[in-house]
């Protein structure tokens, strides 16, 4: 079973890609509290314990804000 969550920009047609729930949580933990809360608020909620079975779709802008490298 795999769960999927996405940022709010997907419905607007933004370009993006999927990331593992675990890497998403790790990236959030590296951010300052207020910034992490802002970005997490754009993505459908899930329990951190579900991260191994969750894929998170982020638009390119949200991915850059969270610290993911640009696709090469």
Defining traits:
3-stranded mixed sheet, alpha+beta, single chain, 72 residues
Protein structure class = alpha+beta
Mean pLDDT: 92
- Structural domains: how many: 1
Number of distinct helices: 3
Estimate the strand proportion. 15-25%
Describe the structure.
- Helix content is 33%, strand content 21%.
- The protein is of the alpha+beta class and 72 residues long.
- The protein has one domain (3-66).
- A three-stranded mixed β-sheet has the order 1-3-2.
- The longest helix is centred in the middle third of the chain and has 9 residues, at 21-29.
- The protein is globular, with a radius of gyration of 11 Å.
Write the layout of secondary structure elements.
Layout: E1 3-6, E2 16-20, H1 21-29, H2 33-40, E3 54-59, H3 60-66
Parallel strand pairs: 1-3
Antiparallel strand pairs: 2-3
Short description:
With 72 residues, the chain is of the alpha+beta class.
């Amino acid at each position: 079973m795999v769960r999927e969550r996405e940022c709010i920009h997907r419905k607007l047609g933004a370009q993006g890609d999927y990331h593992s729930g675990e890497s998403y949580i790790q990236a959030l933990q590296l951010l300052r509290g207020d910034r992490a809360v802002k970005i997490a608020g754009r993505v459908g909620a899930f329990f951190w314990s579900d991260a191994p079975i969750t894929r998170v779709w982020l638009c390119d802008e949200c991915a850059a804000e969270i610290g993911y490298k640009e696709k090469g």
